[in-house]
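Retro notes (design track)

What went well: tokenization of the new backbones is finally stable.
What didn't: we kept losing track of which sequence belonged to which structure.
Fix going forward: every design gets posted as structure first, then sequence, in one message. First example under the new rule, 90 residues:
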């Protein structure tokens, strides 16, 4: 997703949600956003896409580049200072 956003000169974030869905917020040229939506529903899209829904809104700013955020389940409790204190993913 990140490479597509960067290729289209969009700013944004693709975030994996707890329930398995992916939330994408993208800002930029409207035509580039339309291309992003088309690619999300096209064959060959990364992952398994069942449905794409979208909502147009005013750009809010505050975005830099195009980043991906992974859902990190909480680590199992462990002794202080152990690897269990570290996030499972970044």
């Amino acid at each position: 997703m990140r490479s597509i956003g960067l290729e289209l000169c969009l700013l944004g974030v693709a975030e994996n949600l707890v329930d398995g869905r992916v939330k994408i917020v993208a800002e930029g040229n409207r035509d580039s956003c339309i291309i992003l939506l088309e690619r999300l529903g096209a064959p060959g899209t990364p992952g398994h896409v069942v449905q794409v829904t979208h909502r147009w809104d005013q750009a809010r700013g505050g975005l830099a580049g195009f980043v991906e955020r992974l859902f990190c389940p909480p680590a199992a409790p462990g002794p202080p200072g152990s690897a269990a204190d570290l996030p499972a993913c970044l």
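Added context from the reviewer: Residues 13 and 72 are 16 Å apart (CA to CA).
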